[in-house]
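Reply to dn_fold:

You asked what the input looked like. This is it:
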Amino acid sequence: MVSPGLGALLYGAVLGVAASGARAVESAALPFYFGTAGLGTLRGLTQSVAVASTAVGPILLSLARGWSGSYLPGVMGLSMLCALVAVAVCFARRPEHRTV
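and this is what came back:
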């Protein structure tokens, strides 16, 4: 947990930078990789995934705590999932645009 004081301020600042960075990357990457024709559809899909993850994450953490008595296995598992996705992104190729 985050204790009051400087740690809480630092946590908030890092969280804000990360969220803003994610928005900036999404705003630049989606049109770059997929064009602007289906941008609304892609944004809707990414927002749906984001909302679903905020609903599923706490459930997974509570299940991990019930199973092990600690949140640590759940946090480590979700952290490993994030790391796996970060590595997978490095190997993503630019989609080929088909001409009709």
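The chain has two domains: 1-37, 38-94.
Hope that clears it up.
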